Amino acid sequence: MRTWLPVLAFTMVFAVESTPYLGADRTSAPLQRIAEAVFGYNACVHWDMIHHIIRKTGHFMGFGIFSLICFRSFWMTWQNVARHLRQLLAYGLAILATFLVAGADEFHQSLLPNRTGQFSDVLLDCCGAATLCFVLFLGMQAVEGLKKARARTSSNLEPAYAGTTA
Question: Where are the beta strands (DSSP E) in the chain?
Fold first, then answer.
């Protein structure tokens, strides 16, 4: 339960966001008021473009984070699998799960009167998933490299003390 509950919870966030109440026609005005308060009234001359960028960045980051949560769950599920196979499975299935959930989300949106389901959003979501998974991969490789470097350093120090007696 502890392993998969975060995936379920994040999927529920997508379900809530995929309602008629959070479509672009409903979020534009409140976000524009916030932008005007922070940046001034003239900052919103190009509001339609800014709002589009905000929404697409939300897609990219939201589904990217979802893929990391899925990675965590798959990683925890296959603890007894060899490390490289475990990584491959976890990354691949995290991106696949992101594709499936993003596709279901866009399909659901296509059924709503004020929303549109676009395959380009699914592709953007998967790009977010792949990008954040790649960043995680680089981070895991860096941590693994540091562990190996520390192990080499500590093993190089041991022979100097091995033959001495007090």
Answer: none
